[in-house]
Amino acid sequence: EIYTKEEKPLASFTHSGLDSRLPIILESLGTQSFFKLFIYLHFVLENGGVAFLDELDSDIHPLLLPEIVRWFYDKDTNKHNAQLIMSCHNATLLEELEKEEVFFTEKNNKGETGLYGLKDIDNVRRDTNIYKKYMGGAFGAVPNIG
């Protein structure tokens, strides 16, 4: 809900167990980030176009990420065939995507970043557990720790 304070619109939220609404400035960083992001996503879904989002998962709850992706698949919420192009580090999203939709970046020994698609990797089938194989290092693009 939007209310005004000193002629400025302010968003506020209700929470179970609280008697009053909280203004957005008292909400978590994740809620604030999603609120800002939602305006952009809503515009693209209503009008068509492409949403480019860098590190979508940086402040958004991991359970909300797949829902955002589903908005772009759903013909009822995406009547104008909007597209979502995003970067993120949350590997659980791999369970929501087709292999043609997944791209990885990886630095070479010169520090240059390369980009390659999962569809270009041999022996990746539609029933492959992409998440499990990625986490096991089968596709590269995982940090070398230690």
Tally of helical runs? 3
- Low-pLDDT regions: none
Q: Indicate the multimeric state.
A: single chain
H/E series: EEEHEHEEEH
Q: Mind summarizing the main beta sheet?
A: 3 strands, antiparallel
Give me the side-by-side strand order of the main sheet. Answer: 1-2-3
Mean of residue pLDDT values:
90
Shape type? globular
Q: Quick one: how many beta strands?
A: 7
User: Structural class of the secondary structure composition?
Assistant: alpha+beta
Radius of gyration: 19 Å
Strand percentage, roughly? 15-25%
Description:
The structure is a single chain. The chain is an alpha+beta fold. Helices cover 24% and strands 21% of the residues. It has helices spanning 29-47, 64-73, 130-135, and strands spanning 2-5, 8-13, 22-23, 50-53, 83-86, 103-107, 113-117. It has a three-stranded antiparallel β-sheet with strand order 1-2-3, with no helix packed on it. A hairpin with a 2-residue loop joins β1 and β2. The radius of gyration is 19 Å and the shape is globular. It starts with a strand and ends in an 11-residue tail after the last helix.
Topology diagram in text:
Layout (H helix, E strand, L loop, with lengths): L1 E4 L2 E6 L8 E2 L5 H19 L2 E4 L10 H10 L9 E4 L16 E5 L5 E5 L12 H6 L11
Parallel strand pairs: 4-5
Antiparallel strand pairs: 1-2, 2-3, 6-7
Key descriptive features of the protein:
two-stranded parallel sheet, three-stranded antiparallel β-sheet, 7 strands, 146 residues, alpha+beta, 24% helix
